[in-house]
Design a protein that fits this description.
Layout: H1 6-24, H2 27-49, H3 51-75, H4 77-98
Helix pairs in contact: 1-2, 1-4, 2-3, 3-4
Length: 99
């Protein structure tokens, strides 16, 4: 069985973390999902692209999470989450593609 692409792991962490928090009404539980996927993604980024790029992509992951909150006030919660998840997935794909 192949490895799940890191872009999918990262995007799923952002979408899944929000979904878990919203559906369970337990924000800390959503945070656990967000952090778990972020940790898996960071490990895969480090293996595929090196520690420096992994740190930059991890920073982007955290910034996307934080940035989704003010964006949600303008476009709505789900559109905001999908937008930042797509941005992180695209950045991850681009960095890993170049190695």
């Amino acid at each position: 069985m192949g490895r799940i692409p890191t872009s999918v792991v990262a995007a799923s962490g952002l979408v899944g973390g929000y979904g878990v928090a919203r559906w369970t009404k337990q924000r800390p539980l959503g945070g656990v999902a967000l952090a778990a996927a972020g940790a898996v993604a960071a490990r895969q980024w480090a293996q595929s692209s090196g520690v420096g790029k992994a740190a930059a992509l991890s920073g982007l992951y955290v910034a996307a999470f934080a940035g989704s909150h003010p964006l949600a006030k303008k476009v709505g919660a789900w559109p905001s989450v999908f937008a930042v998840a797509g941005g992180v997935a695209l950045a991850s794909w681009a960095v890993e593609r170049k190695g």
